[in-house]
User: What shape does this take?
Amino acid sequence: MTGAARTLGRRPGVAPKLAAVVQSRPDVEQLRERARLLAARVTDPEMPMLTLADLGVLRSVEVTEKRRVVVTITPTYMGCPAMATMRDDLLRVLQEGGLEATVRVSLSPAWSSDWITERGRRALAAHGLSAPGPAPARGGSVPLTLQPTVRRVRCPRCACDDVELTSEFGATACKALYRCTRCREPFEHVKEI
Amino acid sequence: MPEELDAIQAVADDLVHLRSHPAPSPVEEHGSVYDGLLGGDPSHWAFGTDFEDPLAGVDTAIPDGVDPRQLATYCLMLADDALVASQRLGQWCSRAPDLEEDIALSNMALDLLGQARLLLARAAAADPGVVPPLPAGSPVPPEDALAFFRPDGAFRNVRLVELDNGDFAVTTVKQLLLSSVRLAVFERLRDSRDHVLAAVAAKGVNELTYHRDYAARWFVTLAQGTPESRRRLDAAVAHVWPFFAELLLGEPVEVALAAAGVGVDPATVRDDVTAVLGQVLTAAGVEEPSPAPLAGGQGRRGRDGVHAEALSLLLAEMQVVARAHPMGQW
Assistant: This one.
């Protein structure tokens, strides 16, 4: 739970302006668009360089007949402890934009690292994290993999592709630990799932 | 000398009374870095003090033709396997052979805790009658009541998960057997008519794939490592394998819910699990053990609430704080 993530959306001056826009264009489609723009700004608490939208965790932003905004998010992993923070960050940003909202959690379909956008992948790389490759196809019986997972991973710092896996598990459930054999720097790789 | 001591004492006094950092001033425009910790937003803490409903927005309708009590019991079986295994893995925290394994074991504990939480919430939603009673006005949510206020005899987990961690080899063998069976069960549970079970299974498959690979690789590594690691692995196999058969026995509740298209009879995954374990044992050069299955008290087993003393001790530690504060806000 980084401070940077928590303070997002508290920029002074933005909220009143947005509230005025919502009031002046009250039809539902524009309300939805406004809510989408607002929700799309919220960042992930653990990886603040990524918005929830770029992470693929923000699934939908809809407006009910009673003009209430319903935002749906999905956890990356079931034990993800950041869900409550994501919810509160979304509610805060929408509220500061003058919108009352409800946040729902959707478990299905299960999140896939394929849902991380191109912009999200570039943001990860720019911050020293290696972006995931294509997620394995799921369905039917999952094959056992006795060899260490082979990934086409490049060092996000020096672009060297001679890297070694340190651990399949990192500081958060969604990351593996690698080390570059050239520049010797350790780095995190967002896992394919 | 006494003067010097006085001087040292004076410095020490000053240090004791010196604030390590200035307190944030409410009138200071930019505040301080500690402001965030003083705000009223509970989500800043790891899990917050205000637990949301973990099933908010999920369809919790009971599928047609399914007995709610049976569905709740089935969810408790799946949940308790995960909860107890999670607690055991959590006990490795700061004690693993190295930092990477420490983090890996904690990650798997967290995955299983997430599965347990949703499954316990599902059990409570299916049949509130399974939730232990708490004092009126208690803020404890149903899934916590099930985790922290049930006695050992009400836990439905298989006995394998409650076994002491032992050394790293014992934990590796336990994890291999549990994750192999659980992954095979969850692969099929993805097609459950119950929306919650199907969703938990779909996500769980992705998580358990990592758990099984992790345990299988370490199984091979320990078997093919040093004479000492081989000795420990062989001892762990002999110690843990007698608890394996219980994982593949279909209890009446599991069989009934499988017939209703909601659950999975673990007996039906036996061939898949045997094939996977065969690969691991072959790669490891370990002969398949064939121990006599563990006796159960008058035919009753972990799924019926018959457990070893190990579970009672584990629960005593896990539940003591929650039980002391049934009205507590966390």
In short: Residues 162 and 311 of chain B are 5 Å apart (CA to CA).
